[in-house]
């Protein structure tokens, strides 16, 4: 991807799109632009947070390692999404690790640059708060899914969010491996396989890393149905 294309994506990210052009230009000039291979570490849990990160292409996962060595996927980010705002500005260690789950490109904005601009213009702080609130809202929605939906319903929601249309037939590519999908949805890999099987009656066929959805409305109705009625 060209540097100009990278800048265009960064300008449209939630973190930057509401800022005045002069601030965006300052941030882009002082940003660090990196490419990562699949499986490459971006930062590790307990490292000191020194930057805010914006994904320009590909996928990045945030995860924690429990005392027993188990991996818990916290979130997955893709093009135009940012992470690390809250900890970077507080100069505290990362509570999670970040890893590229596909080849990806990431823009890193050093914390001192953001802090300096925030002192000049409080609007920068408002933008960071908006991005942080979006992350919080996503985590609350994720928790609600874990409590209120079956595994198959969570998979249905996941597939619907990958679609580039609102109705009709849709074929989507699974963006990362099934083990990570399972972790992202709070499931074991074998539970994910069973969930895919349960979606066959509502028109979902899985072929390797592709999902063919016969009718999005049928799948949406399944995802939103009351589990007590089935």
Short recap of the structure:
The chain is of the alpha+beta class. Helices cover 43% and strands 23% of the residues. It folds into 2 domains: 3-146, Jelly Rolls (Sandwich); 149-229, Arc Repressor Mutant, subunit A (Orthogonal Bundle).
Structural commentary:
One of its GO terms (molecular function) is DNA binding. The protein folds into 2 domains: 3-146, Jelly Rolls (Sandwich); 149-229, Winged helix-like DNA-binding domain superfamily/Winged helix DNA-binding domain (Arc Repressor Mutant, subunit A, Orthogonal Bundle), CATH 1.10.10. The chain contains 9 helices and 11 strands. It has helices at 3-11, 21-30, 85-90, 111-120, 123-148, 151-162, 178-184, 189-198, 216-224; strands spanning 32-36, 41-43, 51-57, 60-65, 71-77, 82-83, 97-100, 104-110, 170-173, 204-207, 210-213. β4 (60-65) and β5 (71-77) form a beta hairpin. The longest helix is centred in the middle third of the chain and has 26 residues, at 123-148. The radius of gyration is 19 Å and the shape is globular. The model has no long low-confidence stretch (mean pLDDT 87).
């Amino acid at each position: 991807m060209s540097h100009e294309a990278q800048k265009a994506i960064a300008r449209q990210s939630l973190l930057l799109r509401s800022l005045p052009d002069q601030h965006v230009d300052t941030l882009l000039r002082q940003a660090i632009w990196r490419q990562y291979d699949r499986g490459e570490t971006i930062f590790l849990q307990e490292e000191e947070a020194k930057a805010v990160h914006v994904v320009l292409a590909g996928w990045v996962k945030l995860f924690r390692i429990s005392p027993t060595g188990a991996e818990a996927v916290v979130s997955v980010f893709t093009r135009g999404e940012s992470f690390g705002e809250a900890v970077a500005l507080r100069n505290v260690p990362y509570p999670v690790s970040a890893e590229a789950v596909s080849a990806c490109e990431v823009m890193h904005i050093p914390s001192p640059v953001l802090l300096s601009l925030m002192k000049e213009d409080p609007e920068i702080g408002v933008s960071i708060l908006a991005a942080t609130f979006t992350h919080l809202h996503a985590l609350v929605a994720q928790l609600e899914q874990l409590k209120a939906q079956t595994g198959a319903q969570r998979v249905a929601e996941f597939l619907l969010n990958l679609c580039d249309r609102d109705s009709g037939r849709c074929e989507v590519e699974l963006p990362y491996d099934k083990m990570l999908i399972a972790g992202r949805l709070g499931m074991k890999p074998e539970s994910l396989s069973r969930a895919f099987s349960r979606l066959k009656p509502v028109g979902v066929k899985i072929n390797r890393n592709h999902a063919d959805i016969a009718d999005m409305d049928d799948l949406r109705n399944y995802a939103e149905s009351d589990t007590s009625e089935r």
